[in-house]
Design brief:
This protein is 17% helix and 27% strand. The chain is of the alpha+beta class. The protein has a single domain, classed as Methylpurine-DNA glycosylase (MPG) (3-methyladenine DNA Glycosylase, Chain A), CATH 3.10.300. Strands 1, 2, 3, 4, 5, 6, 7 and 8 form an 8-stranded antiparallel β-sheet that branches.
Length: 206
Amino acid sequence: MTVDREVLAKTSLDVAPLLLGAVLVSTVDGVEVAVRLTEVEAYNGPDDPASHAYRGETSRNAVMFGPAGFLYCYFTYGMHWCANVVCGPDGVATAVLLRAGEVVRGLDVAMSRSPRDLARGPARLAQSLALDRAANGLDLCDPESAVRLESLGAPVPDRVRTGPRVGIAVAVERPWRFWLDGEPSVSVFRPGGRKRMATRRQTGTP
């Protein structure tokens, strides 16, 4: 059973906490890996200068403009892929970045793809699930899709935390990162900023 598209047709700020505890599954070359999401970030299109869609639609970000329930994958720092769940009404570019998770099926395969820290951090999460350019635009609500959102989470409200997003240079004050308290896969917070981002490019840190 996959998630109903209508559940995702809301703003990123509404959808982001619903994705905590959700299970994202990929099947590549007949091998399945599943990750339970523990950390996400909301990006709100034209109202959010940190969003890829802030300046309008391009060939790169077209998937973000809907409809909801599709996967937006992008290449960053010249070496990493990151994955987002597209949400919101059709035509409005709002999405949730998948930052971290716990591998719950296919652990050996995930470790062979990402031996360090598994799915901790958006690049390692995508690597664990083998998400790249070929996954961009896949329908997460289709049970036959190679990548699908198997279920939404049901996190205990007392465990849900919010705070600033990580590794961005603008709109850094917005508390649009959501995570499950006590999960070892969750990022260690470091403030964003241009100096920090330049260091990440040099070191290749995802």
